[in-house]
Amino acid sequence: MNRIEKRVVLHFPGFEPLDAAMHRARYERSARQSAKAWDYSIETGPLQKDDSGEHFDVRAGGAGWQSASRVHLFDHNDLVSVFNAGGFFARLARGYAASVSVAASGGLTGYFRHAWRFGLFFVFPFLLMAAGMAVSLAIALAPWIAGLSLWHLCWSLPLAAFVFVRGFLPRAERLHTLHLFGNWRMAAAMAALDRKDVEAWLERSADAARHALNEPADEYVISSHSMGANMAAHVVGLLLEREPHLFEGKRVAFVTLGGAIPQCALLKPASVLRARVGLIARCPWIDWLDVQCLTDPIHFYKVRIAALCGHEDARQADILYVRFKTMLSGEHYARIRRDFLRVHRQYVLGPDKRASYDFTLMTAGPWPASDFAPAGITELPAEQALAS
Question: How buried is residue 378: exposed, middle or buried, by Cβ count under 10 Å (0-12/13-18/19+)?
Answer without folding.
Answer: middle
